[in-house]
Every structure is written in structure tokens, then in C-alpha cells.
Amino acid sequence: MKKILPFGILSIAVILALIVPATEVTTVTDVTLDTGDTAWMLMSAALVLLMTPGLAFFYGGMVRKKNVISTMLQSFICLGLITLIWVVFGFSLAFGEDIGGIIGNPSTFYMMKGILGNNAWSALPTIPIALFAMFQLKFAVITPALITGAFAERIKFNAYLLFITLFVIVIYAPLAHATWHPEGILASMGVLDFAGGTVVHMSAGWAALASALYLGKRKEQTHTPARISYVILGTGLLWFGWFGFNAGSAGGANELAASAFATTTTASAAAAIAWIFFDLLKNRKPSAMGACIGAVVGLVAITPAAGFVTIPHSLVIGVVAAVISNMVVVWRTKKGIDDTLDVFPCHGVGGMVGMLLTAVFAHSNVNEAVTDNGLFFGETSLFFAHLIALVGASAFAFFGSLLLLKITDLIAPLRVSEEEEVIGLDATQHDEEL
Fold first, then answer.
1. Cα distance between residue 148 and residue 152, in whole Å
2. End-to-end Cα separation, the chain, in angstroms
3. CA-CA distance, 433 to 17, in Å (whole number)?
4. Contact (Cβ atoms closer than 8 angstroms) between residue 173 and residue 104
5. What pairing do the DSSP bridges indicate for beta strands 27-29 and 98-99?
6. DSSP 113-169
7. pLDDT at residue 48, as a whole number
């Protein structure tokens, strides 16, 4: 019974969506689509999809050898499960007809109705809405996969499937709607999130912290990474895919995409080097792991700002995020919080730093969507809006995730037994080995 719970929830949601009255689809019909924009967004969607296998290698290389397959599968399975949820009603929850600024009507794009043919999303009229839906799907896929690094090596796979099902429905979709739908509550406040600093990384980071606290420490605290080479490979795939993540969020092949492309690679490079030098200042040896983590932190931090800031400011964002995240990793270790792969210090904190620095450096000369310039330019309204949004989104993601963990644990216990943990999850959960 417990093994089919995620699919039971999905089936119930399908039935509920069937009985909800149909609504008018929020699209523009009979538009003139731009082939260049469409081609770039097709490529961007493919690049973002590649990030999830990249994350699997990134995380898989960091855990112990007996948990590599389990950890990698936790990322890879999101490509299947979250896609099904998204196609049935998830896209509607995020981008359907607005309900109170916090969620979309689940029947708006139920089973992807109305997205084929010469139709476009009203905010992106030059590409097919089907392409927009698939592009956004890849964001929904990688977000729960990011959380897995926090409870790696100690979670039951079946319970994990239930948790990420609930997470996408209850946490991710409302945040995506509130931030990216034109009528969303955060969008109405003027909050800027170019490619997911709030929606993806903060939500995953806070859920990771909640998971680490709820599940508690692993029984074995000694930790030798299985394959540093996997981590390097995963970092390369993530960095490559992130160009679709950020530059693709421009919505077309245009000067904004080029700007986001440039700020993305600059911030990541700056963060990788800053992490190495900060370790040297702390009398630690420079490491491949450190360089890779630093690069990813830079990518995380520039994500909300990529299309709103200049290249020099992206360099600052990368350096600041790397230093702060490095310090939080040390703090987390001292506090004994077993966030296995430092998801909260890197993604949660990196996302928050990026969100705040977006409100510091954003300028209308970079993107005309910026109605209020950042704090660096003497204007304060954007910064205060981001402060309010940061507190609200953080509380929602953290406490909401704690509640979902408790619900999941009551239905299907989350933790493996001590014996299963010692043997390893590859063997006990999947009957496979590296």
C-alpha cells in the first residue's frame, strides 16, 4: 500500500481536476511566433533537463560508495514523477488562472489542454505555450532533486517519492505562481526573480534544512566521498546546463539572454576562485571539491539576478555568496546539523544572498522590467520588497516542509533502519551496487 501512495495522490488529483469547472485559458492565440526565440528556448529546455543528471553525478560523487546509486536515482527519478504531476495539473497550479495571488486553478491547463497549436503564454508571445510549459517543467524537476543532498544516505525511497510529490504540489507550485505569474502576490509586490533564486533554490534550501533537522544525524558520521571525479563531471554538466536555466529565462534569443549568459559564467567563475582563496586564508588546502562547490554557489546566487544586473556586479555577487556560504558550512558543521551535502548553506543561503543582492544591484538599464532600481543606486523600495519576500518565502518553505515531512512520516516512515543504513541504501533500497 505504502509503495503506491505517490501514484494514489496523483490519481486523486486527476479526478479532482476533472470535476473542477473549466476556465478560460490564459493564452494568446493566432500569434506570430519567432523562430529564433523558439529555437533558443528549445535548446534552453534541453540544457535545463541536463542539469538533473548533472546534479545526480554532483551528489553521487560526494556520498559514500554504498549510497551512490540511491543518491543518483533520487535525482533521476524526478524526471519521471514530477513530469507526470506537471502534465496533469502541476503546470496549472503554477501558471493557471490566478486564485488569490497564491495558486493557479488546477483545471486551466489540465492535461495540457489548450497548449498545442499557434498559442502562446500571454507574457511570452513569441514562443509556443507548449514550449514554455516544458521549459518550466525542468525547473520543477530539479527543485526537489536539490533537496536530496540533505537527507542522503538515510531516507527510504518510497517515502521520498511521497514527500517530493507533496513538496511540488504544496510548496513549489505556490511559490512559482506567486513569483512568476503576472498576478502572483510576490510579482505584484515588485519582487524580481529572473530564473529561480526564490522559487527553486530558497525553497529547496529551506526544505533541506527542515529535512536534516527532522531526520536527525546519520549513525555513521565518517564520510569519504565515493568519486571526486563524479563531482567534477556533475559540476561541468550543471554549469553547462545553467546557461539554459538563466539565459533561457530571458524568454528568447535576444540581448537579455546574452547579458544573463555573461553574468552567469562570471559569477560562477568568481565564486569558484573565491571559495579556493577563502579556504587558503583559513589554512585549508585548495580542493577540487571546494572549487566545484564554489562554482555551484556562484550559479545559485546569480540565478535571481542574472537578467537584472551588470557583469561587474555579477562578479561581486559570486564572491560574496561564496564567502558567506563557506562560512555557513563551517557554522553548520559546528552545530552538528547533518545536512549531508550542505544543501542549505549552498543553495538556501546562496539563493538568499542572490535574492538580496538582486535588490541591491538591479537596474532598469539592464532590464526594463526593473521599475525600481536597487539599493546601490539610491532607491529602497525594491530592497524592502525583497526583504519582506525573503522572510515570507523562507517561513513558508521551512515550516511547510516540516509539516510535509511529518505527514509523510506518518504515512510511510522516512528513515531506513540502522542496519539498512550501515549496509547502504544501494543494496537495501534497490538491490544494486556500484
1. 6
2. 29
3. 41
4. yes
5. unpaired
6. TT-SSSEEETTBTTS-HHHHHHHHHHHHHHHHHHHTTTSTTSB-HHHHHHHHHHHII
7. 98
Helix/strand/coil for 172: helix
Contacts of 185 (CB under 8 A, 6+ apart): 100, 101, 102, 178
Residue 124 pairs in a beta bridge with 121
**Average pLDDT of the chain to the nearest whole number:** 93
Residue with cell 539498512: 420
**Burial 268-282, CB ≥16 within 10 A → b, else e:** bbbbbbbbbebbeee
pLDDT in tens, 93-128: 999 999 999 999 999 999 998 888 888 888 889 999
173-232 residue pLDDT tens: 999 999 999 999 999 999 999 999 999 999 999 999 999 999 999 988 778 899 999 999
Give the predicted TM-score (pTM) of the model: 0.93
DSSP 175-208: HHHHHHSTT-HHHHTT---SSSIIIIIIHHHHHH
CB atoms inside a 10 Å sphere around CB 102: 16
Quickly list H helices, 308-347: 311-335, 343
Which cell is 281 given? 586564508
Please identify which residue in the block is written with the cell numbers 510576490: 186
The 3-class secondary structure across 253-314, one letter per residue, is: CCHHHHHHHHHHHHHHHHHHHHHHHHHHHCCCCCCHHHHHHHHHHHHHHHCCCCCCCCHHHH
* Residue extents of the structural domains in the chain: 2-24+33-414
Measured CA to CA, the distance from residue 79 to residue 71 in angstroms comes to 14
DSSP string, 36-90: HHHHHHHHHHHHHHHHHHHHHHHHHTTS-GGGHHHHHHHHHTHHHHHHHHIIIII
> In whole angstroms, what is the distance from residue 164 CA to residue 166 CA?
5
What is the CATH architecture of 2-24+33-414?
Answer: Orthogonal Bundle (1.10)
| Residues ≥6 apart with Cβ < 8 Å to 330 | none
pLDDT digit string, tens, across residues 260-319: 999 999 999 999 999 999 999 999 999 999 999 999 999 999 999 999 999 999 999 999
Q: How far is CA 24 from CA 88, 106, 115, 122, 174, in A?
A: 17, 12, 12, 13, 20
Write the pLDDT tens digit of every residue in 246-265.
Answer: 999 999 999 999 999 999 99
% of the chain at pLDDT higher than 70 = 93
